[in-house]
Each structure stands twice: as C-alpha cells, then as structure tokens.
Specification:
The chain is globular. It is built from 8 helices and 13 strands.
C-alpha cells in the first residue's frame, strides 16, 4: 500500500470535494474541549459552498448529542447535518422490539431507547438479546470486567447489538474504553455481534442521504472526503465505501505518526494503516484550514 499524502491544510484540496463526512470525537473535540483550528476548517468549507456532515460513533441519537457539541464550543457553522451510530442502531433495535434487551451502558445513553417500546432484561438469563453502548463506568472499567457476566450470554447464543463500534476514545488526556471493546471481547468468546456505526454501511447510507438532501441532487462519491482518526472505524469505513479519506493521525494514536521534529511522518502513518490492512489518500496530525 502507498503512503498517504501529507495534507497539513484542508484548503489545499477543498475545491475537489462537495461533501465532508467528518468524525467528531478525536477530530473536532476530545470530550473536554473543542479545537478551534478544526472548527474553523469545517466552517470555511461550508462558507465556500461545501457541506459538512458530521458522522459519529456516539451511541446516542444525533439530536441528543447536539447539546454536547454546543457545550464544548463547536459552532453550528461548522456542520450542516449530523448522523450517529445511535441513529443507525435504533433501526436494528426497533426490529427486535419488544425484546427483552439486556442493556449495558451508562444512564446518559438511555435516549437511544426512547420510543422503541423495548422491555429491559435483568441479565443474560432472561434476555432475548444484548444492547451495549459502552461500559457502565468508563472511568474505571475495562472489557475484562464483563467477561464473567457475558459468558452465559455467549453460551445461550444471544446477539449483541453494539451501538458504539469505537474501541477507545481520548477524553482529555485519558484513553477510555467504548462499546466496541466489549463487542470485541464477546466475539472472542464466540458471541455474535451486530454493529451499524462506522465502519459498517448503515451509518454511511444515512450520512449520504443527508448529503443528498443538502446538495439537492445525487451525490458524486468521487467528491466526498471522509475525515477521522480511527483506523478501524473511520479509515476502514471510508475504504470499504470507496471514498477518499483524510486520516487524522494524532488523535487516539498520540505521537505514533510523528517524526522526530514533531511533524507528520507519512511512513509511520502508513504503518498504522497497514496494521489494519487499510489505506487513506491523505494524512495530517490535526485538521486545519
């Protein structure tokens, strides 16, 4: 696989694209604060006549995450539409209503289930399936904390619906586990996992439908650029959709793609991508105009 082209400024290729499908956590904020340069880049792309669709693996519906973006100082001018893994996952959950569902995840993710008429199970013994948004307490728990609890579910052959395929994200200076890490464990235990967020196709179908509405015409996929920091989610998803991608190589990867002088090292970025047998057309340490 070839190395990604260094792209320190989005403006260098902005005229080549009509649509940006941009990741949120790790690209425009870290869960504690937004990044002004990234927000400015998206705003300027919109101002030049482009359309930014945010595409997030948040397990909550997009309508519930907007307040978080506002609270972090992400300007509304930086995006025109927003889809989440939660939006796509609600379709999977609705098909399995009324359940009962064994729900694993913090209370803040409960908007995912609103209006779906799902009943709750107490655990693996009385569940029809499992729904995971993340650990109950992502400040202290790891996937291994769930192995014993998930064993009877795997033995019963219960499906696990994972509303957040991310394995980890960076919250401030701390790496925390997400639903995807629990789903990986369940698969290793022989369980069956269903996911609708990145890198899987349902969330891209929703995002491109939003893009079509913004354009007022069919989307030319050659003029769509995906942006994200997750190799197995953002980059792999873009590749499987045959869409160009700008890999934000700092994000959850820290200094792994940096040269000794602190700049992007395309060869190191390529190593991160090759490790997951995927590729990106461009790479940058952070998003800027």
């Amino acid at each position: 696989m070839t190395q990604p082209h260094p792209l320190p400024r989005l403006s260098a290729v902005a005229d080549d694209y009509d649509i940006l499908l941009c990741d949120v956590w790790g690209v425009i904020h870290n869960g504690r604060e937004s990044w002004a340069a990234a927000c400015e880049a998206l705003t300027k792309f919109n101002e030049k006549g482009g359309h930014v669709v945010l595409i997030s693996n948040s397990p909550r519906p997009s309508s519930d995450v907007v307040a978080q973006l506002d609270g972090l100082g992400v300007p509304r001018s930086a995006w025109k539409a927003f889809v989440t893994s939660g939006d796509a996952t609600r379709m999977e959950l609705a098909r399995r209503a009324p359940g009962p569902a064994w729900i694993i995840g913090p209370d803040r993710d409960f908007p995912l289930y609103e209006g779906l008429n799902l009943t709750s199970a107490h655990g693996a013994e009385d569940a029809a399936f499992i729904s995971v948004t993340g650990p109950y307490d992502d400040t202290t728990e790891t996937p291994e904390d769930y192995r014993e609890r998930l064993t009877p579910a795997a033995e019963r052959g219960l499906e696990l619906i994972c509303a957040n395929p991310d394995r980890v994200v960076q919250r401030g200076d701390t790496i925390i586990y997400c639903g995807g890490a629990i789903a990986d464990l369940y698969e290793q235990m022989g369980g069956r996992v269903i996911m609708a967020g990145k890198p899987f196709s349902p969330i891209y179908a929703l995002a491109l439908k939003e893009a079509e509405g913004l354009l007022g015409r069919a989307v030319d996929r050659s003029r769509v650029l995906c942006i994200g920091d997750g190799v197995v989610t953002d980059v792999l998803g873009a590749a499987e959709q045959a869409l160009d991608c700008l890999f934000i190589a700092q994000g959850i990867h820290g200094d792994a793609a940096k040269a000794s002088d602190g700049s992007l090292d395309p060869a190191r970025a390529a190593q991160l991508l090759r490790a997951e047998t995927t590729f990106a057309r461009y790479a940058a340490l952070e998003l800027s105009w």
